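re the bet — no i am not wrong, look at it urself. input seq straight from the record:
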Amino acid sequence: MKAERIELEPRTLVGVHETHRWDELTEFMGRAFGTAATEIGKQGAHPAGPPTAIYHGAPSDVVDVTAGFPVTQPVTPAPGVVIETLPGGPAIEAIHTGPYDTLTETYAELTDWISAQNLDLAPDKWEEYVVGPDTEPDPAKWQTRIVFPLN
């Protein structure tokens, strides 16, 4: 795992915001990405990046998450769909390569690295599913960009 400091530009995300248990996330993500993509298309816009999930606050038995797509065109909220801002500013990023069920290993390495650097994290973080099952059948080749904004 290679972590690096980056500078983010703010982005707008159209998604579905819900709270779920960890074992419910796969079903939620599929539904949320479908709903967000449909709404983006209805409003004449297009996704401006990969599917993204924002995790709000510290994870516990349940996860407060928004899943959707970044956009650059104006989009308005609709029933069941929210508009959120991915903040700009300093952040840490790492790329996880492999299946989603091994993400915890990358997170463990990344959190140890962040602790060793004595960095102050913002409360939210996100994952961008750069290469996934929709484009690559081999889970060993999937890539997830993990982003931790800094305070």
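see?? Residues 25-42 form the longest helix (18 residues). told u. also The domain at 3-149 is CATH 3.20.80.10 (Multidrug-efflux Transporter 1 Regulator Bmrr; Chain A). so pay up
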